[in-house]
Structure formats: C-alpha cells, structure tokens
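Structure first, sequence second, as always.
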C-alpha cells in the first residue's frame, strides 16, 4: 500500500471498497450539517437524512476498523448525542472519552453564550486497545520527585487555537481546517508507526499531513476534487513543525531546584515534548531562563547557550542572568 492514499468520492461508497478489519485508527471530522460552504457539497440536510448518512458511514467505519482499533469523531453539540447513541447502542463500540476541544476565538452571539468548543468522541473496538500515554504527556506544573518527571496526562479538555485564514500555514481556503496539534495527539496516542490511519472526510488534508510526518500509513477520502488537489500540494511542502501546539507543552516546571535534575530535565524536555515542534524551542528556553537563570552556574548557562546556538536561536539579552553564581 502507498504510504498515503487519497480517494476522491463519497465516504459511504468509498468505505465500502475497503477490506474488513483493515485500519488501525480512524480520525473522522464529518460535516456537522451547519451549512458550511464545502464548494458543491450540501451541508444542510434535513435532520433525518443527516442521521441516516451518519448511521451509514459509522457502520462502514466500524466494519473496516480492526479489533483493538480506535475511532475519534469530531461533532458539534447539536448532533453529538445522536452520534453517541449510534456508536454505542447501534454499533456496540466501546466508549473511552468525550474530549472537549476548547478555543478562544469564534463568532460572538448577541443572545445566548458564544460557542467556544467542539467535541470529539473516542470509542474503541473492544476493550483492549493501543494508548501510548508517554507519547502525549505534557510537562508537570511543579517538579516533585514523587511525580513522573516525564509529565502528566493532558486530560480531556484540549486547548488549541483555530488555524486562521490569515495564518501563513493555512493550507487552503477550506472553511473548517483543523489544527494539526489536535490530530497529532490522537495519532500518537492511538496508533504506532506504520499503522494505517483512515480519515473518511479528509478536507484540506490535516490528518494526512500528520500521518506523513509521524510515519504512519494513511487513507483519506474526500468528495470535493479541489480539496484533494490542495491536500497533494500540502503534502509536498517542506515540514517546519506542526501548525499548532497545546501551550502547556512549552512550560518548564516550577521548583526544579536541584541543578543536576534541572539540566537533565531541560535535555529531556526537548526530546519528550518538542518532537515536531522545534520551532517553539525558543519559548521553552525563554521560560527556563526566566524561571532559573538566577540559579545558573557557568556550566548551566553554557548548556543553554549551546542548545540555543545549535538551533539558531538568539537568546533574549534582557532575560540572561545578571550574574553567574558558582
Ligand atoms: C469538517 S470538514 C473536514 C476538515 C478536515 N478535518 C481538515 O482539517 O481540513 C468535512 C469534509 O467532508 C467533506 N465531505 C462532505 N460530505 C462528504 C461525503 N459524503 N463524503 C466524503 N467527504 C465529504 C467536505 O467536503 C469537507 O471537506
């Protein structure tokens, strides 16, 4: 199989062409039936038509998913309860998590509360499934020797900014392009290298871009030819880091008071948390300097400067320690 296969067509029809139990992970971001402009595709169906469409594609998705595989589905709040029922009651999938993707920007309502989250349902096929916790931990807020230095579970409320039309890393004019950081977390947690990841509503190709960089194999289905072409273009571009990150990943824990633990921690932080986000190393070094520069000795300062130099980062002069204590 090609590393990444893009299929043009209707998700229900094209899913039928895939073999039973052939994919390890499904990341599905279907149209929410809210009237978005997906070129020629109707995103405002009568409720019963949309419900039947959901039922049909979930049934096929379940068929192609391997035992032990995971499926994540994005959904707006108007329809998520119906989706939950289909997945749990009709398809007998195993509920794991209801994830809230929280963002701070969006349309302001004049009456009622402005919407600031989308939700994601995570189900598995059977009770034994892949979950690589170490791959998706976030740094602890405070260093405590009894805590796992490796970091904490990020929980089920995920803060990631939308990708704005004005951002240079926006892949296309697709109206609902998702942040790569959200998909990165799902793929790292719920699959292994070379596993097959399917996205039945591939849109601008966010899942396929993440799949490509994380060394998985991918199948993306999309009904609009223009989005398929834009995805091909996106996949051919040089990789400079994923377009979004959970900002908690950038924090250095407080209370790293022991020098040797602090040094070990900094090196580990880069390896553990900044894979695919080296463009944010500068923020991490800055936080390290702000928190600990007063405690640095010459070796520690040299370590920070060495990391900065190797990565072409200019340390902010105002943030350097005023004096180095031996
Ligand atoms: C919410 S968007 C997915 C966005 C994607 N996650 C991204 O980051 O770009 C849903 C996509 O489903 C596509 N779509 C709508 N109906 C479809 C169908 N029946 N089969 C396949 N794709 C469909 C739309 O064209 C749209 O690109």
């Amino acid at each position: 199989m090609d590393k990444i296969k893009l299929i043009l067509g209707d998700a229900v029809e094209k899913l039928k062409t895939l073999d039973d139990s052939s994919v390890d992970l499904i990341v599905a971001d279907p149209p929410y039936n809210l009237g978005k402009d997906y070129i020629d595709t109707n995103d405002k169906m009568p409720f019963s038509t949309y419900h039947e469409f959901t039922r049909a594609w979930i049934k096929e998705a379940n068929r192609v998913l391997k035992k032990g595989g995971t499926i994540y589905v994005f959904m707006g709040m108007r329809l998520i309860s119906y989706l939950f029922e289909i997945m749990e009651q009709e398809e007998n999938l195993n509920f794991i998590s209801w994830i809230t993707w929280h963002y701070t920007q969006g349309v302001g309502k004049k009456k009622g509360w402005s919407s600031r989250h989308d939700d994601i349902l995570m189900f598995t096929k059977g009770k034994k499934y892949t979950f690589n916790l170490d791959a998706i931990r976030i740094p602890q807020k405070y260093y405590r020797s009894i805590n796992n230095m490796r970091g904490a579970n990020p929980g089920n409320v995920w803060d990631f900014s939308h990708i704005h039309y004005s951002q240079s890393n926006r892949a296309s004019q697709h109206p609902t392009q998702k942040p790569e950081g959200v998909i990165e977390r799902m793929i790292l947690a719920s699959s292994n290298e070379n596993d097959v990841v399917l996205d039945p509503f591939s849109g601008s190709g966010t899942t396929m871009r993440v799949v490509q960089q994380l060394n998985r194999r991918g199948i993306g289905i999309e009904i609009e030819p223009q989005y398929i072409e834009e995805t091909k273009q996106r996949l051919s571009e040089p990789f400079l880091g994923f377009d979004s990150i959970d900002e908690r990943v950038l924090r250095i824990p407080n209370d790293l008071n022991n020098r040797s633990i602090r040094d070990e921690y900094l090196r580990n932080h880069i390896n553990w948390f900044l894979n695919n986000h080296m463009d944010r190393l500068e923020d991490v070094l800055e936080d390290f300097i702000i928190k600990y520069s007063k405690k640095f000795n010459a070796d520690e300062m040299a370590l920070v400067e060495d990391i900065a130099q190797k990565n072409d980062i200019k340390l902010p002069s105002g943030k350097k320690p005023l004096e180095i204590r031996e």
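Margin note: Residues 35 and 312 are 46 Å apart (CA to CA).
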